[in-house]
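Extended Data, panel c. Modelled sequence:
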Amino acid sequence: MIAAQLRNIAPAAGKCTARRVLVPGQSNQCLRSASRHLASRDVRTEASKAKFFVGGNWKCNGTHASVEKLVNELNDGGVPSDIDVVVAPPFIFLDWVRSNIKSEYQVAAQNCWVKSDGAFTGEISAEMLMDTHVPWVITGHSERRSLCGESNKFVGEKTGHALDVGLKVIACVGETLDQRNSGSLWYTLDSQMQALFPNVQDWSRVVVAYEPVWAIGTGQVATPEQAQEVHAYLRTVLANKLGPSAAENVRIIYGGSVNDGNCNELATQPDIDGFLVGGASLKAPSFLNICNSVSSRRAMASW
């Protein structure tokens, strides 16, 4: 069912979709500005200036034995020295992974609470993460939004609190298939981004992860053209708020059934600065290959 729906929205092979921004009936000024800006980026061939970033979200998976095996395999592998690589184990394994994984890797929590310590049963505060030397946290993942009812406002406030405490943040945005097909893609993304702006003062400590919900865990992946179209729009939203120079340095990464079979083509897109990897991050060889897809980005930059 989902594959048939996606075929209806996939661009024709070889066609750039960057000009197809506005949906009939939508006249929002931000979307009009994005349309003009995206049209000007059709001819863009150079990569953004942002440092390549690969995150591995292990979600609710693993036993101590499997996590130890994965960490050992990652330690035996090699990742390029000029990229950032962050892995996000389940909370119960977080300190062990941090203590045993090589320094080429950083660690992230998959979530944190929106406030400081207190009577919040089952939650982990940003202050606790800082105290245990965990430098990163993921906020706004689609599974938190859909399963736990986290609103844009809640995600924005949580992101701000984590940053205020000293953490760096992977802030997730993305649309469902219904939102894309109904014509509310750009409104959805804009609403998610606007909730972040009042809460973020230092964007050098934030990575924006675009995760089309319809591509997470489904085996479906956005085409490079679809992903680039959205990434260019997100950079436009950032440029409208922060200025073009600052926006060029914010990392916008793609997440949605990324694997070592599609990562190289995705990495050549000028506004894709890396990946947030789900299932493939549980397989060390695949994850290492994804980390090394930065070579495709370098090759594109040298054209």
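Residues 224-242 form the longest helix (19 residues). This feature is highlighted in the accompanying rendering.
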